[in-house]
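This entry is listed below:
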Amino acid sequence: MEWKYVLASVVFSLIGIFILGICFWFFEKITPENLWKEIIEKNNIALAIVAGAFMIAMGIIIGSAIHS
């Protein structure tokens, strides 16, 4: 096992998580209501599904970009 590959994997994972956080922050800013308030307090299941789908989609896109 070579440590440079482990280190590269950790660095790219952290970069991907950071980019995913920024994308989710931007997604929350462009939606008209507070996302967490709608999901937690008002039990908006549809919005929770949309937010989850957004996170999965962005994760796939970021993972593909980092893997290439």
Observations:
- The helical segments are 3-30, 35-40, 45-67.
- The chain has a mean pLDDT of 86.
